Amino acid sequence: MIGVFVLGLCLLLAGGTSAPALTSPAFLISGMREIPSPPRGTSWAPQPRTADGLRMVASADGQQFQLHTAGGDRTFLPGVDLGDTTPGHLPGEGPISAAQYRAWFAAMGWLGLRVVRIYEIHPPAFYEQLAAWNQANTERPLYLVQGVRLPDETYVKKRNLFDKPFTDAFRRELRAASEAVTGKLTRTATFGQVGGVWATDVTPWLAGWIIGREIDPGAAAASDRRNASAPRFLGRYFRNTPKSTPTERWLAARMNDLAGYVAGHGVSQPIAFVNWPTTDPLKHPQEPLPQEDLLPIDANHVLPTADWPAGTFASYHAYPFYPDFLRHEPKLINYEYEGHADPYAGYLADLRRHHATMPTLITEFGVPSSIGSAHNAPLGRSQGGHSEQDAMRINAELLRMIKDQGLGGGFVFSWADEWYRYTWNTAGQQDPARRQLWHDPLTNEQHFGLLAMDADGPPDAGEQRLLDSDGWPARAVTARVDEEYLHLEAKLAGSPPGSMMVSFDVLPGVTGAPMPGSGDRRPDAVFALNLVGHSGQAYVRNQLDPMKLDFRVPASDRGPAPEGWKPVELLVNRALTLPRTGAKLPLELQNAGQLRHGTWDPQDDEADSRALWELDGDDLSVRVPWAMLGFADPSARRVGLPRNGKLTTQVSPGVTVSLTASGTDQAVGQVRWAAWTRPYYTERLKQGAAELRDAALVVTAGD
């Protein structure tokens, strides 16, 4: 197996600090026993066409998305979605350096990815470095799909997409984006919006546009009722069909706005709007949640005119784990792909069948490499609970499937892990104002990246020696902390026990029943380890159990635990009822506190990124996710205390550690750390990335 692929430097960033300069946009490969040769084949250099005086490097022809290159028209595009943030930052703060962009583009090229899709205007360095990379790699350039996000969420609050201030703000951003890609934009930074001078023209490699974001179905349905009399839009570049809805008419007008701005620069590119299964135009009668099949939005109702030669396409953010109709719709669950039932393949086939006159691209897909999950899925493609190798294997499998089903492209979400993200089943347990300052393995949304953003901890934090004695079960224990874990290293005494309890006290004032086997101690969290069977379970005291913050789960549905304690679990589906059959579906829990044994060293081919403890001879290593200790914000040392269904927090003086084995209770010491506002991290491609690379080369081999 190919080992870990590591970018050529450890980027330690905070605030507006720039990354250390690289001597070239190259990246280094570390820990590899074999370095694959660069992919060979015909040229991917752009060979644009001209129609009606507009130059275009890509266009739609029926169901084919065609990228016009010197090696012929490419009809399938493997790509990746790139956000605009790094650890410690929120979107729009523009912290990505030119050095990072250079290294990232090189890594994308090594992976065989041909397109980078961005959601909004990036800082000028993005466009400068993209052009520089492509000019230096003329035969294997990286094409761009530019996004334009909605300006804010006011349409949801006002229940009106046609709200004039909202629409005007979006039109201004559409114009700004058209100027950014042609190198003709200057603007001042504002909150959530980068500023600078854009002077680089990247239109030679601009393969398309995707505007907007996933539309809220309830708000859009209300907007449609409010604007029912809005006339069908008939613009110079885009128009609506007679069956269009008000939402589709608003989207057609915005696509027409963008086309007008772009045409002014003498170019044309395919333009699409963001869609997702929640608002797809298909019917899903077995979907148990009404809002997931409430409002259809159909790209077939928004069509280009003869004055827009590049055309349009249908763009979907479609994952294999959500919505629930993927698990219950008979037509989908019985769809056969490669000799077995595969509902996601069936869904892809349905999308392509519906959009019979335009290309369909899956512009977000993938699964996260996280300990925590948020939804179960058929065929093990759940929203989390995957090792890095498993996530990359599934992503590779899905990319090949998207090509096999006749779609025009697949963009993996996402390039890098994003610490600021949240998900429905852990968000209520965290301080939202400081979420970007630490990394939670239980929050799956933070782990979709191909590029790991590994927490490093402050370089001057040092190791804390907690225990150095002739005691039993351990002779020595050291600790260190980083933005993701509390790490313990223990040297066990002679005759190690068959099982051990590692106990953690985070708030001395919280008391209750002791954990059986821990003597008179009353810790707040426990790792119960079977040292012989290499298994384990994490528990948390009832008072700190975070599930009660968001969801009422009957005690009878929770996993086994001693009285006064709960296993660390996540709700991954509420109890539901299927609308057609009336079948009752029970709630579903993930045992996120199942403690996997093994190495997590990314230099080791056998590593499991989900492993939390390892016993190697007398050496015991344990790493504890902050969430499993009840922390709502470890960067401020604040522990979450659920009270009356709301999150309150209390500052922890530190984490007091003790060990218990065979009735012997051993006090270890207290781990302390300073609060932080600047996170440190290291970048590396995740284990298994080479498998995705192989898939990317396969799906483009026929072009």
Question: What do these coordinates show?
Answer:
- By secondary structure, this protein is of the alpha+beta class.
- It folds into 2 domains: 49-415, Glycosidases (TIM Barrel, Alpha-Beta Barrel), CATH 3.20.20; 459-675, no CATH class.
- It is 18% helix and 26% strand.
- It contains 11 helices and 39 strands.
- The chain has an 8-stranded parallel barrel.
- A hairpin with a 2-residue loop joins strand 35 (638-643) and strand 36.
- Helix 10 packs parallel to helix 11.
- The longest helix is centred in the middle third of the chain and has 18 residues, at 246-263.
- The chain is globular, with a radius of gyration of 26 Å.
- The protein starts with 48 loop residues before the first strand and ends with a helix.
- Mean pLDDT is 92; it is low at 1-38.
CATH superfamily of the largest domain: Glycosidases
Q: How many distinct beta strands? A: 39
Mean pLDDT: 92
Question: What is the CATH topology classification name of the largest domain?
Answer: TIM Barrel
First CA to last CA: what distance?
Answer: 28 Å
* Biggest sheet overview: 8 strands, parallel, barrel
Strand order of the largest sheet: 6-7-8-11-13-15-18-19
Q: Roughly what percent helix? A: 10-25%
- What best-fitting shape do the alpha-carbon axes yield? globular
Instruction: Flag low-confidence runs.
Output: 1-38
What is the domain tally? 2
Range of strand content: 25-35%
Radius of gyration: 26 Å
What is the top-level CATH class of the largest domain?
Alpha Beta
Class by alpha and beta content: alpha+beta
Under the CATH scheme, the architecture of the largest domain is: Alpha-Beta Barrel
- Count every helix, treating DSSP H or I runs of 4 or more residues as helices: 11
